[in-house]
TrEMBL record:
One GO CC annotation: plasma membrane
Catalytic reactions of this protein: [GlcNAc-(1->4)-Mur2Ac(oyl-L-Ala-gamma-D-Glu-L-Lys-D-Ala-D-Ala)](n)-di-trans,octa-cis-undecaprenyl diphosphate + beta-D-GlcNAc-(1->4)-Mur2Ac(oyl-L-Ala-gamma-D-Glu-L-Lys-D-Ala-D-Ala)-di-trans,octa-cis-undecaprenyl diphosphate = [GlcNAc-(1->4)-Mur2Ac(oyl-L-Ala-gamma-D-Glu-L-Lys-D-Ala-D-Ala)](n+1)-di-trans,octa-cis-undecaprenyl diphosphate + di-trans,octa-cis-undecaprenyl diphosphate + H(+); Preferential cleavage: (Ac)2-L-Lys-D-Ala-|-D-Ala. Also transpeptidation of peptidyl-alanyl moieties that are N-acyl substituents of D-alanine
Organism: Prevotella jejuni
Primary localisation category: membrane
The UniProt record lists the keyword Oxidoreductase: no
Pfam families in the record: Transgly (PF00912), Transpeptidase (PF00905)
Protein name, per record: Penicillin-binding protein 1A
Keyword vocabulary terms for this entry: Carboxypeptidase, Cell membrane, Cell shape, Cell wall biogenesis/degradation, Glycosyltransferase, Hydrolase, Membrane, Multifunctional enzyme, Peptidoglycan synthesis, Protease, Transferase
Length: 767
């Protein structure tokens, strides 16, 4: 009997060992669970990330399922203190094992599993933790986590075979999220200490390694004392491992955290708004009518056209990999080469921040200081303000979660009126405070918003893209994602229509106020009232009476048609067939307007924005190339006539401060725009090789300056364009010069409707 029992025990043991062996063989070969292949192990960070490059060959972002944007550095870029702190704290036998530390694993099983000591420490090595970060999905139960462990062991062993210890340490630091948008050690060192990782001191390194245990719990901004205690624990571990002496510990542990916190900004030229838009654009699915609201019919049509005509729109779902699956920018390790220039992007971001954040915002705050309705206009009622705030509340994630949990209207109201800890945006860095959610909504509405885009008019290449003032806190993108009323920036399209119908910049029109079907347009000036004035002067002065005269003469339907040719596709344009359309009550995005203005600088041919030039797969094979999409809108002669008139706006019209205030001497044209009540300020500018546009306004149309002196486009938007162009011209590496002239035919006379002109040395008869 005893012998049978012994045989049973040996048989059971062998069976268990056999099952374990088969299980690990199955895991090793990927038959059970997920096991990365050799390519993924060779470049593991790309398993969850596509790389986005600028036109000047800079890595501006990585895309993965966690929406993190990290910049990797190699082992030589790490401070030795970082390495010592991590090894001492997380894996003291790191240099001795091959991925799995069986001594630490056994200790964890006995002390934590058998004896129940929660403080006994874990058994995961640094390599296992890296494997978890790179290749494990988030476990939703203890059972799932236990099943993941063997997979991570094997991945860790494979990582150790493919990488040196130094490379594994570098990958670990590059991947970790240190909070406050500091993903990766490079950004963490920049954010917390305003220095590079290789220059971190022992205490700074210990603090950052301390965050690896639980960055939220040891948040140095919110819980500085708790963070300091954790840092000192790391220092003590360094003492035990011989990296720091006890005497050094006694002195170092008394030091303050020494933070030099700098709000995480996009990497130079990282273009967060651009990346977010591009990511969504490439991942778009084929439009299905049922997915659109009844009022989105026009958008469905536009998306359907984009699906058919724009190779980049929905590229991931229109193209498949070898296995037949569609591409995914989060997991396929694509290399996406964009048209963004990091230097120009940086200049655009800094120009927006300089003018909007450094000047306009303080002026707006000053104007609103003693107004009860602030930041809203004094012209609206308290009831209207309440409706706006309630609508904003309903759009928040807090409201949606409370509704899903079955909260009553009173409970939701109390939640929004109860103070909470939160981190809020300021132009001087994020600030931790206590505030009610409803007050925070009003607070954020007090910030003026802005958008700016710059593109090459001949190729459509988007060089700079600033969708807002700060992506982390204001994600609404007005470059391509949102539309605002365009005001007088619409007038050049009307004048272009006039040129197409045989008029010239010298054509005379009556400068008088008239009534058209019950509509009597107003004008900001009565200069030259009652006279016959040239169209050039009328556009230069942004004269409303002449615009009304032209649209009445040419007809609103013709104007609507040419607006569509210029790329303005807002459904409101089709609905508005009255003459008032000539003053710009319709809405457009900054990107649409910039694309439309390329027509004037590109011989009458409109260039659609070009965001990407090519895409490579993870092996470096080119799998897609993109060319500019162009549409002929007006004749070449009409484009020259429009350049003549847009130049006049700069020479002596509403854009003249570019000359006398900002001292720009370049050959340029432009147009300002201001909507009713100063709700929107615009400036669109063209040069021979760049077309750029800027919009500034409040989140809601009822948030604005009450006086035109501050609320007009020449004050709100034009300076951003000026600062940007100053920086672009000053950077000789970019190749833009103020001496460059618009390419015009020899002896071209804009005031003749029929003229023999020289194009490339050949005499051609026009009209």
């Amino acid at each position: 009997m005893r012998r049978h029992f012994v045989h049973f025990l040996w048989g059971s043991l062998l069976a268990i060992l056999g099952v374990i062996t088969v299980f690990f063989i199955s895991v090793w070969n990927g038959w059970v669970g997920y096991m990365p292949n050799m390519d993924e192990l060779s470049n593991p960070i790309d398993k969850f990330a596509s790389q986005v490059y600028s036109s000047d060959q800079q890595l501006i972002g990585t895309w993965n399922a966690d929406n993190n944007n990290r910049v990797a550095i190699d082992y030589n870029g790490l401070s030795p203190h970082l390495v010592h702190a991590l090894v001492a704290t997380e894996d003291e036998r790191f240099y001795e094992h091959s991925g799995v530390d069986f001594i630490a694993l056994g200790r964890a099983v006995v002390k934590r599993g058998v004896m129940g000591q929660a403080s006994a420490g874990g058994g995961s090595t640094i390599t296992q933790q890296l494997a978890k970060q790179l290749f494990s999905e988030k476990a939703h139960s203890t059972v799932e986590r236990l099943l993941q462990k063997p997979i991570e062991w094997i991945i860790a062993v494979k990582l150790e075979r493919h990488f040196t210890k130094e490379e594994i340490l570098a990958m670990y630091f590059n991947y970790f999220d240190f909070l406050h948008n500091a993903v990766g050690i490079k950004r963490a060192a920049n954010v917390y200490f305003n220095k590079e990782p290789r220059k971190l001191t022992v205490t700074e390194a210990a603090m950052l390694v301390g965050l690896c245990k639980n960055p939220s719990m040891f948040n140095p901004l919110r819980y500085p004392e708790r963070c300091k205690q954790r840092r000192n624990v790391v220092l003590m571990q360094m003492v035990k491992s011989g990296y720091v002496t006890k005497a050094e510990y006694d002195e170092l542990s008394q030091r303050p955290l020494g933070l030099h916190f700098t709000k995480a900004k996009p990497v130079s030229g990282a273009a967060d708004y651009f990346q977010a838009y591009l990511r969504q654009y490439m991942m778009a699915k084929k439009p299905v009518r049922e997915d659109y609201q009844a009022w989105q019919n026009r958008q469905f049509v536009l998306d359907s056209i984009a699906w058919e005509q724009d190779p980049l729109y929905g590229w991931c779902n229109k193209n498949t990999k070898r296995n037949g699956e569609p591409y995914n920018v989060n997991t396929d390790g694509l290399r996406i080469y964009t048209t963004i220039d990091t230097r120009m992007q940086q200049y655009a971001e800094e120009s927006v921040r300089k003018h909007v954040g450094g000047y306009l915002q303080s002026q707006f705050n000053l104007a609103m200081r003693y107004k009860k309705n602030a930041p809203f206009s004094s012209n609206i009622s308290r009831r209207t303000i309440k409706e706006i705030l309630n609508r904003s509340c309903r759009q928040t994630l807090r409201y949606q979660r409370l509704k899903e949990q079955g909260a009553t209207p009173d409970e939701i109201r109390r939640s929004f009126q109860t103070p909470h800890e939160m981190t809020i945006f300021t132009y001087h860095g994020d600030v931790d405070t206590v505030m009610t959610p409803i007050d925070s909504i009003r607070y954020y509405k007090s910030f003026l918003r802005s958008a700016f885009v710059s593109m090459d008019p001949h190729t459509g290449a988007v060089k700079a893209y600033v969708g807002g003032i700060d992506y982390q806190h204001f994600k609404y993108d007005v470059v391509m994602g949102g539309r605002r009323q365009v005001g007088s920036t619409i007038k050049p399209f009307l004048y272009a229509l006039a040129m197409q119908n045989g008029m010239t910049p010298c054509t005379l029109a009556p400068n008088v106020q008239r009534t058209y079907g019950g509509w009597t347009p107003r004008n900001g000036s009565r200069a030259r009232y009652g006279q016959e004035v040239p169209l050039r002067w009328a556009l230069q002065q942004s004269n409303n009476w002449i615009s009304a005269y032209l649209i009445n003469l040419l007809g609103p339907s013709q104007f609507v048609n040419i607006l569509h040719d210029f790329g303005l596709n807002n459904p409101d344009i089709d609905k508005n067939t009255s003459p008032v359309l000539c003053l710009g009550p319709c809405e457009a995005s900054v990107g649409e307007m910039a694309s439309a203005y390329t027509t004037f600088a590109n011989g009458g041919i409109r260039c659609a924005p070009l965001f990407v030039t090519k895409i490579e797969d993870s092996h470096g094979n080119v799998i897609a190339k993109f060319q500019p999409l162009m549409t002929e809108v007006i004749s070449e002669v009409s484009s020259y006539q429009m350049i003549d008139m847009l130049r006049a706006v700069i020479q002596g019209g509403t854009g003249s401060r570019l000359r006398y205030a900002y001292h720009l001497t370049a050959d340029m044209g432009g147009k300002t725009g201001t909507t009713n009540n100063n709700a929107d300020g615009w400036f669109m500018g063209i040069t021979p090789n760049l077309v750029s546009g800027c919009w500034v306004g409040g989140e809601d149309r009822d948030i604005h300056f009450d006086h035109t002196s501050m609320g007009q486009g020449a004050t709100m938007a034009l300076p951003v364009w000026a600062y940007y162009m100053q920086r672009v011209y000053a950077d000789k590496r970019l190749g833009y010069s103020q001496s460059t002239k618009f390419t015009m035919p020899a002896k071209f006379n804009p005031c003749q409707t029929a003229d023999t002109i020289n194009v490339n040395g050949i005499q051609e008869e026009y009209f």
